[in-house]
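HUMAN: Forgive my ignorance: could you write out one protein's sequence and backbone structure tokens?

ASSISTANT:
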Amino acid sequence: MSKTALHHYQRCCFIRAFESAIATQAAAGNVPGLVHLSTGSEVADVVLASHLDSRLDQVTGSHRSHGIALACGAEPLEVAKEILGKEGGLSDGLGGTQHLIAPEAGFLTSNGIVGAQVPMAAGAALSAKTRADGGIGVAVFGDGAANQGAVLETMNLAVVLKLPMLFVMYNNGMAQTTAAATATGGSLIARSESFGLEAYTTDSADYADCIRVFGKAVQTARRGTAACVDVAVTRDHGHYFGDGDADDFQASTAMKSLEKYILNQSISLDSLTAAKNRAQEDAVAVVAQAAAGAADG
């Protein structure tokens, strides 16, 4: 487990540094439109992806999906070029930051319409059920999207059709700029249970529990029982880059907890630091290479 945790930490550091480099490009005016950073969800992204099989499973994400796309295995240079609107990106720069597509890596698509990715994942789950190949559809969405009708309708449909589907709600307590407590009545996880979903809760700041819960939920979905995970994450910066304080790109709360977990597993601080430095160097180099490429069109 200690080596796995160190590998996961290095992946988290890569994503964090990648987002920091993208923010630098956005500040320089090199990212078309607004860019929504995934800072704060790194541990959830990496742990979820570690339980998936890119040959069988397909994940859909929201407008804030750089991290989960990278965690699933999307080619970092192609992701960076897509965000920057460059030729050679996942869609030759035509989709941009909110519309990442890497189905060969198990990341079906991300979507700028709040909640729209959830029924898309149901389609992937239905395809997997039809093929009977053991694959699942995974919808990653925020707690703000949980009030969308399409999300609730898909929960019902997943149970009725017995889809191999996993709903993953990244719960950061914010819906754009509105606190969830002022816009959501009752318990979101209780809603999923009321539809008949197998429901789980975890916190990305508790690495060991996150590993356990995601593993159990994925296996539940593979057995043909739709499941839902409510995972607590943080949103470390504004709704989009430039909205509020976006200067501090230190490790997230969950990453700091993972650091402590790793050090308690007899992994040296030197090994931890080396993994972090390698990841940061690789991420910065990838974004720099993407920025140096030719612009689309």
Remarks:
- Residues 2-291 form a domain with the Rossmann fold fold (CATH 3.40.50.970).
